[in-house]
Amino acid sequence: MNIIVTGSAGRIGRYVVRDLLAQGHDVTGVDIAPGGKHLQVDLTDAGQVYGAFAGADAVAHIGAWANAGLVPDTRTYADNVSGTYNVFQACADLGIRRLVSASSAQVYGFSSHAPRYAPVDEDHPLRPLNSYAASKIAGEQAAAYFHDRYELQICSFRFMGVRAPAELPPQVAAIQQDPASDAGLLWTRTDARDAATACRLALETTGELDGVYNITGAEVAVDVDAAELLATHCPDTELNPTVQGRNSPLSCARAVRDFGYRPAFSWSPERQHPESQPA
Questions:
Q1: How many CA atoms lie less than 13 Å away from 216 in the CB half-sphere?
Q2: What is the pTM assigned to this prediction?
Q3: Are 6 and 63 in contact (CB under 8 A)?
Q4: Which residues of 165-189 are buried (b: 16+ CB within 10 A; e: fewer)?
Q5: Residue 161: C-alpha distances to residues 105, 238, 250 (Å)
Q6: Considering only CA atoms, which of 11, 57, 47, 48 is closest in space to residue 30?
Q7: Are 9 and 31 in contact (CB under 8 A)?
Q8: Would the CA dihedral through 230, 158, 81, 279 be positive or negative?
């Protein structure tokens, strides 16, 4: 397939590009950053998006302001929402039917509110706490609209704690030392290589896909069972008996079922997965 990757110079995007190329796909990266091996495209400019997307078969839309606080909140929200809408509209008009769109587990608001229940599935209530999370909810709603009106197949990925492999050892050590400090991410990290694989699997799947999907690592990154972590740090969370061992409290069962997502890189103080070459 000829696949467009927006945000191709970013933390997730560069791994998505590398994974797709390794599997034989033709990839065009687009990013607002100057230089690099990508088209410089401002996603808030619809004309630039149409020009970049012409002839593509599928899109991995990763490009966005990656968190609140990088620019003023009004710009975080406006740029992320308009850029996502432009991507979806261009795909609808150009006949591109399969997309992955990066949302975020920040939509759940766990940095200030403990989960109501665990494992946390995609039906869990949403409580956005900043402009970035609010923009991601708007993107999910836009995806549902474009699916209903234009029959686009859009997977909105609620990524949790995605990090490049080189970033993970100090973070895992910090979580192990002070688990209370990481309850907002449910003690879970996602290796960027697994995030990239999830994108590719969803784009390659021939079945009908749409809706939201949790994407995270398979296990908590500490030597403590998830049920114990939740009982200690989130005592009001209702625990389902399926919370067992070190399995992440954020459930990826829907992604496993629909396109076979199974993380290959689970990190802990004992298990490290450095990459053989930098991305």
A1: 27
A2: 0.95
A3: yes
A4: beebeebbeebbeebeebbbbbbbb
A5: 8, 23, 11
A6: 48
A7: yes
A8: positive
Residue 225: exposure state from Cβ atoms within 10 A (0-12, 13-18, ≥19)? middle
Domains of the chain are 2-259 (3.40.50.720)
Nearest CA among 70, 41, 83, 200 for reference residue 132: 70
Reported as a single tens digit per residue, the pLDDT across 39-75 is 999 999 999 999 999 999 999 999 999 999 999 999 9
User: Which tokens is 265 given?
Assistant: 């890189």
Contact call for residues 154 and 148 (beta carbons, < 8 A): no
Residue with tokens 């509110």: 113
Residue ranges with strand state E in 26-163: 26-31, 39-40, 58-61, 98-104, 117-118, 153-159, 162-163
- Tell whether omega for the bond before 269 is within 30 degrees of 0, i.e. cis: no
Residues 180-227: tens digit of each pLDDT: 999 999 999 999 999 999 999 999 998 888 899 999 999 999 999 999
Cα angle 224-229-234, degrees, rounded to a multiple of 5? 175
